[in-house]
Amino acid sequence: MSYSFIARLRPLFLLAFTAILSAIVVQPGDLGSVDTYRRLQTTRSFWTSAPPVRPGDIGLVGRNGQLHYWYGMGQSLLMLPADILARGSVRFVAHFREPPWWLMTEATIVSYITSTLVCTLAILVCFRFLRLLAFSVNQSIWGACSLLLGTTFLHYTQNLQENNLLLLLTLTGFRFQYDWFRSGSVRSLFGGSMALGANLLTRLPTGMDLLAAALFLFLCLWYENGRGRATSNRLIQYGRICIPCYAGFFIIDRLYQYYRFGSLFNTYLQIYSKQFDGKIPGIAVHGPGWVWSTPFWQGFLGALITPEKSIFLFDPLIVLTLVLTFCLWKCLPSDMKAYVITLGCLLLGYISFYAKFFDWSGDYAWGDRYVTTPVQMLALISVPLLLRYGSALKGWVRGLGKAIVAASVAIQAASLFFLNSLEVWQLKTLGHPMFVIGLRFVNIIAFAFGMTDRWGLSNEYTRSSYKVTTPYFFPFLIMRQGTASSGKIVILIVGWICLLIALLGSLFLIKIKSREYDRYST
Predict the structure, then answer these.
(1) SS3 of residue 506 by DSSP
(2) Is the CB of residue 469 less than 8 Å from the CB of residue 477?
(3) Which of 24, 195, 236, 289 would staple 173 via disulfide (CB 3.0–4.6 Å)?
(4) pTM confidence score
């Protein structure tokens, strides 16, 4: 094995190590959302005798009167191997002694394994995709790091919702399908199509991601060949591979729908709207269409300009992408133009689709959780573009870019400090509208100086659970929970600090080594 080949692997190992450390450091030791706990219950119903719905919880009445949750099966399948391993580990240890304090619950193990795996794979796929887009190793490394540390991807590494899984699948689909465009590899096209198709098992609206991938490749072919026979032949080959893959996953989703609710042709929203009509607090509209009762422009503009959910506030790197695209459009290669156009269309598509949804903002979420995939995919090219074209930009643009990057990292770090629902509960008494990100920094300062009550940041809702006002990291939640001795808490906190130092050290090593890696670019 040649030295240059080993050297080319070093960025991947270093990025993987950084992603693993990041995922472990930010973990709270639980799944972070009632939605994910419900999906884990579905996971257990797949391979144990557990019911699909937890006793006492709500669900939709399906076939034979059986209750089912309304989510797709994608994340439940993702957690299946980790859940089997977690239950096996706990039961194995229990044969010999009471499970130790560090083993905690099965959900803790599932959270650590699943979140770390998805985070690491997504960062590595991001790096490889940026390399395919002809960014240097140095630029690609920092692009992957900007996704990890400078976007809401970091928050959803801590809070195990579906978002990072959806990003991983879509990014993988783009990466492999674009490799087909570059190399003609049918294997890459098939792999990318399988990744994109798997999205349908999680959320059916991700069909827009499939269309976006097709648009991206069409634009790349158009820029390269124009309207010619070569373009038509490649599009025909594309359809022959992709359409059967997508159809297969769609059929699986429909069979799962029939298994639960006895119909191949409806969606859970139709059943949800019927069974929960008039039962959701704050919804004045009644009838079959109440789930789409938000005025369109309220939901559309809400995702763009409201201080509580604006994508530009929660993911500022998208602002940098837009600024750089505007300044550098004539300099950008055709595939980069195709990428920006495609992701812009996908973002508008998602915002428009969810604009009338009664819960268009995702409610108990950090930002608008329904549009994170196109937002993060637009944001991840901002730093690579800044590094590639920095010398051609005016000084104020470079300065603005660095400021946005710094602000993005600070915002994502702040998003981890407390449970995402803290500000949602506070707004019930503080009122709307509210600059949520600013309120998060105020909460951190108030906590640090013991001023939370004096500043009027506590109310009956925030006092209802220790998780809401405790630093949302595993050692601190265990300390507040009081389930371990002081000695064990010290061990946990010291270990967590060591991991944090190791993470900072790996980032420093990336800074030192990243330019060196460009010598091995291919």
Answers:
(1) helix
(2) no
(3) 195
(4) 0.94
